[in-house]
Design brief:
By secondary structure, this protein is mainly α. It has helices spanning 10-47, 50-97, 102-154.
């Protein structure tokens, strides 16, 4: 007796498609893993040795600390100036309450508002300057890091 193969059924076709799909998924997964390893290897090569990386990180840190200290000192100076201006405003407010005439009270009130507006202008100017210096510092650090990484990548 000879056996004849029956034509594939829908279930057999579905099973074959499932096997092909699974095989393709395995191949794709392997390719993704290969690419991930290549990317990680490239990244590790750009970092250089741990000693090189530590030196670059220390250099960046050493450059960043003075900039952060300067920003902190400037922020403290602005806060001190704000505290002094607030006390001056409070003094002007009490002076206004002690005036004997309406005209004198109006003059004191005008002085108080002028001092308040001057304080707002100075705070705004100080904040703009501080933010500008912060952006400049971060930009300089980014350029330094980029140059350092470029030298490592090209081997120079």
């Amino acid at each position: 007796m000879t056996q004849t193969h029956a034509p594939p059924t829908d279930a057999a076709k579905a099973f074959e498609q499932a096997v092909e799909t699974f095989e393709q998924a395995v191949k794709t997964g392997c390719k993704i893993q290969e690419q991930a390893v290549e990317q990680f290897t490239d990244f590790a090569e750009r970092l250089g040795s741990p000693v090189d990386w530590q030196k670059r990180a220390q250099k960046s840190f050493d450059a960043a600390v003075p900039a952060f200290q300067k920003s902190f000192d400037e922020a403290m100076a602005v806060m001190n100036a704000n505290a002094k201006a607030s006390l001056d405003l409070l003094g002007k407010a009490f002076d206004t309450a002690r005036c004997d005439s309406t005209a004198a009270a109006q003059d004191k009130m005008r002085d108080m508002w002028e001092l308040a507006l001057k304080s707002v202008r100075e705070n705004t100017r100080a904040l703009v300057q501080a933010n500008t210096r912060i952006v400049e510092s971060w930009t300089a650090l980014a350029h330094t890091a980029q140059k350092t990484n470029g030298k490592t990548k090209s081997g120079g």
